[in-house]
């Protein structure tokens, strides 16, 4: 049978492994109160008072207690999913939770109770208007947040701060659209529309606000996704040592034998709450060693996908012919920081220098000592600058790439609308159409008129039981 959004579903909601408590959650779907009543009788041997904590046994088919714990009964629509929900909070052992889960499936079989898919409870919450799409995504982002700043901004999105900003924009666009559409319906009044209604002024105001929201969302996306930073350079220049200095711990193997870092090591560190996924790579050099060659090929793959490349050099040798050859292969468009390492072995002091190479691209050079941990702060600051990070995360909403794309699309449509407005009243219908498209882009963020495919993509990435 095909799984549908109205099936009764059950899942273990707590993380796998052992814990103080473990939660099994049931959302009754179309089976509703009838199923809930039958399940309460079968599992707890009694009816549970709505929204009260009841300390009860969890019974097997023979009436023996599998566990004892707190059971909660949330009749629709006052539950997480908006459906009739039952929650059994027992002991957090993997076997006992499996037993309770199996017992639920057995007792719920007459109603078609099945295991929930990843994110299915939250998908229901969205479909039943408990959360909008941006808030539903914030649930997963809060669970997955890798830094405190990311968790706090996911919390703000879950509370609806991001959705409210989007709704305020949509309201303004709708207001303007209504003015225009009314004018289109009464062509004789078109003459002074743009002037009289101050359509241009209103549009300019909306565009400013949208730019602000996009700025905050961009910061939020940075908090969520982080930045992938690749350490590249010849063997022995100190890539692994720099990773350790940035992370403040001994992670990668540091040895004086050239070519020891064959496989990539990724370590996520944070700078001001932004996750930096730092990838240590095999040293780039000509080699006969087959295994090393594979590592080097992989390194180039990492470099192609990086947000930032740190090109490490030995400060004593300076920029060698090999380094120039390596730099020439860096893909255009990826920011590169040239790091002169091992300043402690030279007369150089840690510093940041902006170089203009061949008169065009700006290259930033940071001089530091990974081993002595001198100048590491300069590099951190440079990474934040490249990331486009503005200090202060108070008003940032945790946003996703999907949201940024929609905001940019809205921005483009409003820019086109502004262009039509410049052409006067005869382009009013085009003006109106761009406003409509901008509104559609904004609505896709909170999930009004969303396709099933998009929902599938978003919710399949959740954990089970959420
Ligand atoms: P990789 O091959 O580029 O990863 O280089 P490693 O990090 O393994 O370092 C190679 C050698 O250089 C090791 O002996 C390190 O201790 C040494 N080294 C790395 N950074 C520095 C530094 O800043 N100063 C000094 N004096 N030695 C360093
Ligand atoms: Zn290394």
Automatic annotation (TrEMBL):
- Positions binding (6S)-5-formyl-5,6,7,8-tetrahydrofolate in this chain are 25, 87, 130, 466
For whether the record's keyword set contains Cytoplasm, the answer is yes
Residues given in the record as GTP binding sites: 236-241, 255-261, 280-283
Matching entries from Pfam families are given as: MMR_HSR1 (PF01926), MnmE_helical (PF12631), TrmE_N (PF10396)
Q: Per the record's keyword annotation, is Magnesium included, yes or no?
A: yes
**Cofactor(s) this protein requires:** K(+)
Output a single Gene Ontology CC term carried by this record. cytosol
Q: Which GO terms describe its biological process?
A: tRNA methylation; tRNA wobble uridine modification
Listed EC numbers: 3.6.-.-
TrmE-type G domain sequence ranges: 226-388
Annotated binding of Mg(2+), by residue: 240, 261
Q: Which residues are recorded as binding K(+)?
A: 236, 255, 257, 260
What's the top EC group for this one?
Answer: hydrolase
Identify the CDD domains for this entry.
trmE, TrmE_N
Q: What GO molecular function terms would the record report?
A: GTP binding; GTPase activity; metal ion binding
Name its cellular compartments: Cytoplasm
* Details of cofactor binding: Binds 1 potassium ion per subunit.
- PROSITE patterns attached to this UniProt entry: G_TRME
Write out the entry's keywords from A to Z: Cytoplasm, GTP-binding, Hydrolase, Magnesium, Metal-binding, Nucleotide-binding, Potassium, tRNA processing
Q: Which family does it belong to?
A: Belongs to the TRAFAC class TrmE-Era-EngA-EngB-Septin-like GTPase superfamily. TrmE GTPase family.
Function (record text) = Exhibits a very high intrinsic GTPase hydrolysis rate. Involved in the addition of a carboxymethylaminomethyl (cmnm) group at the wobble position (U34) of certain tRNAs, forming tRNA-cmnm(5)s(2)U34.
Subunit annotation: Homodimer. Heterotetramer of two MnmE and two MnmG subunits.
What is the protein name for this chain?
tRNA modification GTPase MnmE
State the species of origin: Trinickia fusca
